[in-house]
Amino acid sequence: MKRIKIADVLANPTIGETITVKGWVKANRANRFLQINDGSTINNIQAVVDFENFDEALLKRLTTASAVSITGELVESQGAGQAVEVVVETIEVLGDANPDEVQKTVMQPKRHSLEFLREQAHLRFRTNLFGAVFRIRHAVAYAVHKYFNDQRFYYLHTPIITGSDAEGAGEMFRVSTLDPKNPPLNEDGSIDYSQDFFGKPVNLTVSGQLEAELGALALGQVYTFGPTFRAENSNTSRHLAEFWMIEPEVAFNDLKDNMDLTEDFLKYIANYILTNCADDLAFLNEREAKEQKSKPQNERSELSLIERLEFVRDNEFKRLTYTEAIEVLKRSKPYKKKKFKYDVEWGVDLQSEHERYLVEKEFKCPVILTDYPAEIKAFYMRQNDDGKTVAAMDVLFPGIGEIVGGSQREERLDILKKKCADFNIPEEEIWWYLDTRRFGSVPHAGFGLGFERMVMFVTGMTNIRDVIPFPRTPQNAEF
Ligand code: ATP
Ligand code: MN
Predict the structure, then answer these.
(1) CATH topology of domain 128-171+206-466
(2) In three state form, how does the secondary structure of 128-152 look?
(3) To test ligand 1's pocket by mutation, which of 402, 403, 456, 457 has the most ligand atoms within 8 angstroms of CB?
């Protein structure tokens, strides 16, 4: 008999039909009520076993985590808690799970810490929590592609191994096939990379933006969505060494267009998840609500997870300049009471505590900060007429801080060349990028969205390690 997915059975139940369902046993009550899940939905299907009709030996194998195939009639449920259930006619155990071993895992039905779950790469997928998180992660990825496709962007694959180290977005991972114990040396004792695989030092990419600009200045509008690597030794709840980034780049857009695109895009994703992931979202919403109760009043978030998504979808983001933000911060209570750990002065890079104050306390909505001091931003950002600031924008989200970083790019060759010199970027290395400013250069703009930061926002998970299947962080690449 052809297998049917549990999501489809529950969405469209045909009472009286005989069906085959395959999945893993979530719970077994009294060898009579099995909860079976196949990953297609957070909801289980209940299978009712008339144990007198089955072998003792078979019944013993229907333990939590084991894999089964069951066939039986779909009926209206007698019990509370589910609308339909399957009256089992045949059971096949597809894969056993030893109850003594299950005891030691996250499959044991009790609350486990997220840290403990992280140690069990395989079984954490089986939990309701991570099932919900990874189904939603998938939906966010799909929504990203759908949004850009519908808006006639082209998905551009930029390189993962890059020979340019000019992005300046962070520390890079070197890629090499040289023997680390015995690398070829130059006369001065330095490593001779001309003998390496690519004949020069190369790294894992920290951003696909520079390459995306080349595409945008011909194809009009492109986006990248790929793995991104930063060897920053920052053990925070918002940084991974390997993460995924979405980088749209649009010819003829200025900073205002760029902000409009970002805002529309983020609202679209919030709405997509609200509309398409109701069951998983309801579970995460309730989980967070329970967690909130155990927190002190002043640390609880005012809005629930679902309310936060609705808020982002329905409200305009607050837009202000970096200079205005500095003034707001200087007038703030925590500043006056010296509660900020880091200094607030025009010219400093804003720290997470400042960003969160603006979003969570002052404006209570997503914030777009623009026009940052040139010194603290990348070389390619467009110089403003004041000569001091650049057309940068950062989007700040509640609970997350920076979720998007972007800018209008410097399209004027002479100014860009001067910026390269200021930032010590040799023209021989970046000629392929400067070329775009030689053949019909036009204003253009783009941004980078950290995919995992967006998944954190839509799932309410507070540690970035819990929204990626296999997190890579300092000292941690076990599986
Ligand atoms: P942050 O200040 O938070 O370290 P950044 O300024 O280095 O970020 P950008 O270079 O602007 O980040 O990258 C664009 C986006 O990529 C950021 O807004 C963020 O969402 C995401 N991002 C950056 N670094 C990481 C990281 N290590 N792990 C996960 N996401 C990241
Ligand atoms: Mn940034």
Answers:
(1) BirA Bifunctional Protein; domain 2 (3.30.930)
(2) HHHHHHHHHHHHHHHHHHHHHHHCC
(3) 402
